[in-house]
Amino acid sequence: MFPFEALINSIEDAIVLFDRKAVIKFVNRTGEELLGKSLKEITGKKFKELFPEEKTIAGLIRKSISEERSFSGRGVNINIGRTINADFNISPFFVQGETQGAVLALKENIAIAEREDYQFDSLIYLLGTLAHEIKNPLGGIKGAAQLLREKTQTEGIGEYTNLIIKETDRLNSVLQNYLTICKKPSFHPLNIHEVLEKALSIMDLPMKDKGIILQKTYDLSLPRVRGDEGKLLQVFLNIIKNAIEAMKKGGSLTVLTGVSSEYVRQKGKPKRWAVTSIKDTGEGIPSGDIPKIFLPFYTKKKHGTGIGLALSKKIILDHKGFIKVESHEGKGAAFNIYIPFEGE
After folding, report:
1. How many domains does the chain have?
2. Please, are residues 237 and 203 in contact by the beta-carbon 8 Å criterion?
3. Residues 39-63: pLDDT tens digits?
4. Nearest to residue 58, comparing CAs of 29, 74, 78?
């Protein structure tokens, strides 16, 4: 006879079996990992006992058993000690035509399959082409202005040539960001903490100037990740710079590293990520703005270009990772950066 338990444990969805009294009788390995509890801790208990804050699922389990109906949902927020976004299906469990309980199938939605669409790729190509075309004559303009400043002694001319040089430098900086977007990353094994420390040392003076307190908690046991050091440095610099700017009256910047609680299953094994969390105590991001902050050219800053976070998202996607943002207006923001470990 084919082993039932081995079959259920090979399924990538979390499977939970309830009896007629809505008591848990079985959970597969994926369910143990997702719910964060062992089979021994789960069996013999009701869903509402384990997760008292989650009333929707508990109620539907009872209805499925009593009414012999199936229920399903997509993209639903479910509280299992932490809030996850998941698809679920609850169906009555029959034996010889009689209802013996219910089965819950649960699958967490993780935004790692987020793709850049054709329009975004086209935009990147256009930006790269324009940046190359503008960058060369811009160098000529700056060179001519520098020569003009050296050769003329006419009163007032120096002020204008300095302005030309200053503005060409500013435009050149913007163009360099666009060119960076187009450049493909060069991957190799690296220690994420070394990249973080470099970013923090670069931003040390701006933090001290604002009286910002830095707090670091690193998981030094983290394996190496596979990445492009220069590009990941740029991501950390962009996010740390934004955090500093959000704390107008000082505050604290917290940097944490660890292994993700989120996972997907590949070849029957859970795959997790190295997570770097950068948290500030600034003004926070309005909930309506969070879906927009990674769009190219979206900014609310007076002198912002709206390219920093779009560039950061592009870099992390190229690393087969993703970024999650948590924020409450007036209470700061947290950017959680997920990067695959080497060999995954």
Report:
1. 3
2. yes
3. 888 899 999 888 888 888 889 999 9
4. 78
